[in-house]
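Reviewer 2 asked us to include a model.

Predict the structure of this chain.
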Amino acid sequence: MAQTLEKHHVVWYRSTLFAALLVAMTAFCEPGIFSALNGMGAGGGASPDITNAANAIVFGVLAVASLFTSGVVNRITPKWGLVIGTLDYTPYAAGLYCNDRFGTNWLLLFGSVILGLAAAFLWVSSGAILLGYSEESRKGRAMAFKFGLQSLAGSIGGIISLALNIKKAWRGSISTPTYVVLMVIMSVGWLFALALPTARQIQRVDGRPVHLVKQATFFKEFRVLKSIFTRPAILALIPFWIYGQWNLSYQWQFNFAYFTVRARALNSTLFYLVGLVSALVLGQLLDHTRWSRPARAKIGFLVLVVLVGTGWILGQAVQVHYSNTKPTLDWSSDGYGLGAFLFTLWGFCDPMVSVFNYWLCGCLSNDLNETTMITALINSISCLGSTFAFVVSAVHVDYNWACGINLLLFGISLPGVAWVVFTQIMETTQSTFAKGAGLAVHESENVAPSASANEEKGSRFIVKEIPQ
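Predicted model (structure tokens):
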């Protein structure tokens, strides 16, 4: 039975929803524009080979770096982790431009490494903030803001590309001004991260403070990470995390392989525009107080099973047809509607998978530091899946097989998600998720003093032993 909590007055610019909006704006400027570029197929360029290799590097670096940045973010605070994460997306976009126009590869490959490192900070920090700052009743909307605005960026990128390439009724690369406009948007994301309230400044409607806990040593941060990773609920969700970003490579390849430049831009616009709608709708549903939290988890799960399953079954049928006919479709072509509908359906489903995934993990803990670690695991494992997916594209695996892998991975992930949804989601999370974190340092003026003999008080920190 859920607790009834007294509502407290909250200053709007210290609220969790305002913090979520600022995080969402960083998602708009950085991963959103990254998605806009790639959503137009091959990073907007004429050849997908180098782009697939570059994206494999991005997600490979992100997969490894996420595990290490989780401890760093806990020590420098999620706000400053987010600031770092917004600073280095533009070299990747510049590398795409130079490769497309001049055939140079080094800047794109270098930019991919830099982006992978920056993205690790951005994704770990943003996930920690959205799940660790937010009240239980607002976690769905917080994640919806992020993935909704990320999709909005993709749609705006598609609109810009459509306006600048509307006469290109052939396959090929996008115009130079498209790259310039998108790089300008990427370069301003740090302003929103800088405006983010700190954990100490956040005001929740339930009156509970946000505690930022630093482990006594960096090594003990990894003990917490290991503790969380070995929990049954986390292990059960690993296949779902792998699926969550595996699909990107194939979907972007699909758009590049079968459509003209302007049709790709239109497809990309529709793909991300419907994603904005689906993210906001699912986020609202997951926070709806009419149903209990376990009921909302079950409803969200069933919605995903139906929509995502339909998308990949239809996708497999369409891919077999396209493999036989090998079309190059413009919006004026016969048969364009089927491919555009399929691509748009994928765009509708993908943000719902992300919102549900993070919301489900947010049901497992309300602790800021633990959500940092959970987010790091999600990012690391999801990006590992993306890395292999882009390798699959880079070695030119047949599109029929590439599509079938997505359908297979989604099917394999369902039993684990079902077990978590039907057995592990409670009405409220009463305590922290991980046990045995060891010696921790609480950076909060709101931590209640303890009578323990092991507690040492300072002007800013309280050090206390967490029960083993």
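The domain at 12-465 is CATH 1.20.1250.20 (Growth Hormone; Chain: A;). Confidence is low (pLDDT under 50) at residues 434-468. We have added this to the supplementary material.
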